[in-house]
Amino acid sequence: MKRIFTTIMAAAAVLSATVSCSQYDDTDLKNSIASLEERTASLEEFVETIRGELATVQELVSKSEEGITIDSLVEKENGGYKVYFSDGTVTDISNGAKGDKGDKGDKGDNSTVDGENGLNAPEIIIITEEDGTKYWGYIDADGKEQYLMMGKDRIPVGGYVPEISINEDGKWVVDGTVIGSVNAVGTGEAGSLFKNVVVEENYVLFVYWTGEEIVIPRTTQLDITIQGDVLGEDGSVVSTVTYNQFSDPVEFEYGAEKTFRLTLPVGEYDMAVTSPNGWKADVDGSSLVVTAPSESNIFAEEYGAVTVTVAADVIGVSGSATLNVTLPQPVYAVTLTKDGEPVSDATLIFASGEVKEYGITVTADSEYELTFEQPENWTVEIFNDGNSLRITAPADASNGVITAVFKSADGATELARQKLFNVISEGSAEAEPPVVGDYYFSDGTWGSDPAGKTVVGVVFWVGDPTATDQILAEDHPLCRNGLAVALHDAGKYAITTAGGNTITYSSVYNAIWDLYGGVEGMGLYMSFINYDSPVGYTNTAMLKSYDGLGNQSDAIDAISTYDASNEAPAGSSGWYLPSFWELEEMFTAAVDASLAAQGTVYVPWDSDNFEANYYWSSSSGNYNWYCVSSTAEGHDPINANELGTSREYNVRAILAF
Predict the structure, then answer these.
(1) CA-wise closest residue to 214 among 201, 195, 239
(2) Which parts of this chain are annotated as the region Disordered (predicted)?
(3) In the chain, count of helices (H) and strands (E)?
(4) Lower CB count within 10 Å: N or C terminus of the chain?
């Protein structure tokens, strides 16, 4: 193409020099030059289009061979589809017939320049062998099918994209082989290399221009359930429970056997049953029989998941059901009461030096020694013959966590620990409560006058975020005043990993299970998938924990990078990726003027560039993350499956204070 372009420009220069010394009307010559330049640009664009479509063909064949399935298709306004695959990747597919040759264009009314000829796509074909392997080929000058060769070897479609170009004679060159003319006598458009896209219930058929078919199954779930009965004291059935990976575990005595009802799909399929080490799980007709390990099995796992998986012969058609199981767990617990009522407060607030007393009851399965861990300068003591607990706050402002620690009777072995609550001593410091639109300063204070202060954010919500965000309450119990938004976007990033791998809800689920104590961590996971709550700090903490397993999310990395160059005040939570709920509040709060005064753009909105206004949230929904659009039409959650988790959208940090 470079050679063609050089030739055209040289000719244009000669023509220009020739007419510049004459008195003749050079309109036609100028039109000729303009037409040649337009033609060159058109050819370059055409070559890139064909290269892209050949790459798409290669990708589809590769997906088909690797067993990748299609999660969903979204029809585009200009025709064709956006295809979302089960491996988290996304591709665009054109849907139209290969262009036909037309008649040569007529001359314009005031021009000697002929209408442009149509452009013919190279006649690259797919040749399928009896074993199903697809190879690249082409139609030669005699109309015969030939293989494209790499040395002495045929080239599989799934592993290679042919290199195409146009030589100075206007001929297609494919991997060094001249195979046909770019130009036909006629006008008309090249169209697509895809003749058709047929969407069926269980698969999608991509039809190449020669009629060659590429079939990719659609991701399909087979229905499978595990159910059990809840019995009353008299042994009658009170209710029926359908178990899943979020259900509380079923407790077994050592060596006990329990039977559950199993509903399986109709038809033929393969089945696999997995269970924790030492446990036994078998399917007997429509029953799942689970047997706990014996007490003498020291290698058995105390708890875990029994999973039944079924898979049909069609790739991508499968289903599974999970039953969480556990052996009896030792009980070590402290119960506090106030005026005879259980204390359920997650955070206790003390005035300077204040003393509070509670009733205390201890439950333990063995002899124990009970001690307490508390913040510096706080005191915790048991009195009244072990029936009461006294907590004394320091004189200064301070906060932390009080934890009960159970040890063996000799004090040598820790048996269990139980967090009782967060404690906060407010000391003598007082501050006016924040209002939406206040500035949040680098010293951890807030107000409407930025004079003499360094502004790091703007308050967009007032309230106690620790009331709903569990990890925030544990890490930063003093952050009970509100939420502030950063002055600037952290950039545009994807929610996927740097390697392009989708971080799915199930992978985070497994990470939480491992990192936050098995079943006990599942309460955190339920907040993680609840986008209608201010839980961005917890979500970000879990994603960072998942990052620690070697899966770096670009959006989370962006928050960390922003934090490194825009240090958050010591009294705050630090910057994090907001939940969907927090994004909604951020978009609807009346803080634009405050941010504008700091030279920042709060919500960049351009109706002609709609996608540029999507913002990633840290809230997950099923298989994908939610993002929100900052348009005036509202802020409903948009499942990233509709957009592609590898797409780069805006990232905006917030903090709690």
Answers:
(1) 195
(2) 95-116
(3) 9, 43
(4) N
